[in-house]
Amino acid sequence: MQKLVFATNNPNKIREIKKMLGDSYDFLSLEAIDCHEDIPETRPTIEGNALQKAEYVKEHYGWDCFGEDTGLEIEALGGAPGVYTARYAGEAKDPEANMAKVLKELEGETNRRAQFKTVIALIINGQTKCFTGIIKGEIAEDYKRGDYGFGYDPIFIPDGYETSFAQMPPEEKHALSHRGQATRQLQAFLEAQNKTRVS
Ligand code: IMP
User: Fold this and answer.
1) Does ligand 1 lie within 6 Å of residue 69's CB atom?
2) With CB atoms 3.0 to 4.6 Å apart as the test, which of 5, 136, 162, 167 could cross-link to 63 if both were Cys?
3) How far is the CA of 86 from the centre of ligand 1 (A)?
């Protein structure tokens, strides 16, 4: 089985992607390759940051790998927080503080349109590919907390639903979500590669 590094230290992302891809791939965490530093995320776009993470691991550790970057883009805030999604309320990357800041900035705002965007950048066998997933929806007027999810999930309601991502079991979120869409593209690409290698 081909080994592939997932260039993230975020246990929530690892949990979600592993659940979606199952055991058909041997994914290594950064810890497993002895990478303990914070990988830089300094590019001005979500795609650029996903690529930066994958390129860093390839360059410094030599592994084929994929990086993932996600941003929340809110229409009434001109696309913010965007590439600053993780540290919107400060370097502590505190999800509660981030959500509180969004709700405060949208106080009295009737346009609550927003989207999550995920880019997965894959470096494999000398080639680089990007896969993008977008889910559109609205920012809730107040927290809609549930038993699931992470990050901004308690304030994001996908189009066609009245519940937030935090109120949806993982399978339901993954069927719609930004990360689910990008992961299915990654999976299809890896499966096609495996078929070509075997035949
Ligand atoms: P990064 O991609 O690791 O830079 O994280 C971006 C930010 O988006 C972090 O604050 C995450 O908590 C948040 N985030 C990423 N994916 C999701 C998601 O699926 N739901 C809610 N928040 C998310």
Assistant:
1) yes
2) 5
3) 6
| 67 contacts 57 by C-beta, under 8 angstroms | yes
Domain that holds residue 24: 2-198
Q: Is the CB of 73 under 6 A from ligand 1?
A: no
Give how far Cα 56 sits from Cα of 20, 49, 68, Å: 25, 10, 12
Report the CATH number at residue 178.
Answer: 3.90.950.10
Helix, strand, coil fractions of the chain, as percent rounded to 5? 40, 25, 35
What is the distance in A from the centroid of ligand 1 to the CA of 199? 38
Our measurement of the distance from residue 52's CA atom to the centroid of its chain's CA atoms, rounded to an integer in Å, reads 14
* Rounded (10°) angle between helices 11-21 and 178-198: 50
Model confidence over 111-145: pLDDT tens digits?
A: 999 999 999 999 999 999 999 999 999 999 999 99
Total tally of structural domains belonging to the chain: 1
